């Protein structure tokens, strides 16, 4: 049984409040307190966002009762070991396809290096503590009597993670870009849950999240580009989604097989 300091209802409400405050703080700091695109304004917004992320992460950590989700991780069978390896390879390929080596060079020479780093860190800390922390634990408790408990918790928390990216429309991001961002965020959310369950920690998903977001334009809070053709988009992301779901279903079956193990 998953035991946290707070009930699943309180965990859910806390996640909603923390995200609501994030959007409020981001709006106020961008539109009123530190408006404009000067380096000073961007740095001030980054500091405010990072400070809030640390505070929100601390609140989430307390409510969760720590960093771990499981008291002991059930030994992974051969299928799960293969699937989590595939997921790891997919995440590495995602970084390479997104031009991470070139982004790294661009970041080193960027005048906004610290601002971009703070914003990427804040995203990793806040979004993982809320989505893979508060929301995942809340839904895992809510679906306690369902035999696919963790699969549903991963899908619903991943769906929330995807929907949150729709707020980028308010920052002026293009509709097609935002929709595709929300969809692949949902898929990545499920992969992140797989990593979270396997490592029994939020640290690794925070690191992965940080490196995905760590780019020269992150402090502008708007994703550039016009998106990909929908056909190619679904050809790429549908198999990734199926791999994530296959792991989660297998994980639930493995948990039932090792039902003698207790869960935190």
Automatic annotation (TrEMBL):
Taxonomic superkingdom: Bacteria
Location of the CAAX prenyl protease 2/Lysostaphin resistance protein A-like domain: 113-214
Pfam families cross-referenced by the UniProt entry: Rce1-like
Gene Ontology BP terms: CAAX-box protein maturation; proteolysis
UniProt keyword list: Hydrolase, Membrane, Metalloprotease, Protease, Transmembrane, Transmembrane helix
Family: Belongs to the UPF0177 family.
Name under which the protein is recorded: CPBP family intramembrane metalloprotease
Species annotation: Lentilactobacillus hilgardii (Lactobacillus hilgardii)
The organism's taxonomic lineage, starting at the top: Bacteria, Bacillati, Bacillota, Bacilli, Lactobacillales
């Amino acid at each position: 049984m998953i035991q946290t300091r707070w009930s699943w209802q309180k965990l859910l409400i806390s996640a909603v409040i923390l995200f609501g405050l994030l959007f409020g703080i981001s709006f106020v700091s961008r539109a009123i307190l530190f408006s404009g695109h000067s380096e000073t304004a961007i740095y001030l917004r980054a500091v405010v966002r990072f400070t809030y992320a640390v505070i929100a992460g601390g609140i989430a950590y307390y409510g969760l009762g720590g960093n771990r989700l499981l008291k002991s991780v059930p030994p992974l069978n051969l299928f799960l070991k293969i699937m989590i390896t595939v997921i790891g390879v997919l995440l590495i390929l995602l970084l390479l396809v997104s031009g991470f080596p070139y982004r790294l060079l661009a970041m080193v020479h960027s005048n906004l290096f610290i601002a971009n780093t703070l914003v990427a860190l804040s995203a990793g800390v806040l979004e993982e503590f809320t989505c893979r922390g508060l929301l995942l634990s809340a839904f895992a408790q809510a679906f306690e009597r369902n035999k696919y408990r963790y699969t549903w918790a991963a899908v619903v928390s991943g769906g929330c993670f995807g929907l949150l990216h729709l707020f980028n429309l308010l920052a002026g991001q293009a509709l097609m870009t935002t929709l595709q961002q929300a969809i692949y965020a949902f898929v990545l959310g499920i992969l992140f849950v797989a990593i979270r369950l396997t490592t029994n920690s939020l640290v690794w998903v925070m690191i992965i999240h940080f490196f995905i977001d760590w780019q020269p334009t992150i402090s502008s809070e708007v994703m550039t580009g016009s998106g990909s053709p929908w056909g190619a988009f679904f050809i790429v992301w549908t198999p990734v989604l199926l791999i994530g779901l296959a792991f989660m279903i297998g994980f639930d079956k493995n948990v039932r097989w090792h039902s003698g193990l207790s869960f935190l």
